[in-house]
Amino acid sequence: MFDEHLARWRRSSAETAAPLVALLATLILAVFLSWAGKELRNDDAPRGGLSLQFAWHDDCAKPHCASKIVGSWHARKGAATVQVLADFPFIVAYAYLLFAFANAAARDAGNRNRPQLARFSKYAALAGLLAGAFDVVENFGLLTMLWLTPQQPLPLLTSLVASAKFALIGIALLTSFVIRLWPVRRSTR
Length: 189
Prior knowledge:
7 helices; mainly alpha; elongated
């Protein structure tokens, strides 16, 4: 049943402007998030919201300490919350874009009679969707740190989820690009 839903979604993404809309939404939201996140940058959070995503240390004498980062945003807690909430539509856009790009690579590989590459592309499509799911979990961790407690093990778990998300994004992109660029070998007979 799940395969049927994925197949239907694959077909619809190939026949609509949805991938283009997802690309535009991803770019616009990425620019907005970058711009809005500037006010969160400070000595304790030099990379703004990204600093909290990787705040895995429990020793606040070291960098990447969630308590120090959240404390430095005391006057900006609302802005930090808006930053995380604005990430949700971005997640939808980029996860669908990764899914659509990988499915385009799968169709291309299928059209070139490369079933193994098409299968890898389908896994890349799932990796893109999983990245979005991990990002949602990460955002709940970030919101919990902002509003309830930045104490361990929450920062460590949130950082692990963020790391897995970025790995899945890399896998989806790299696999899709390699398969799209994979040369077609011609028989020399």
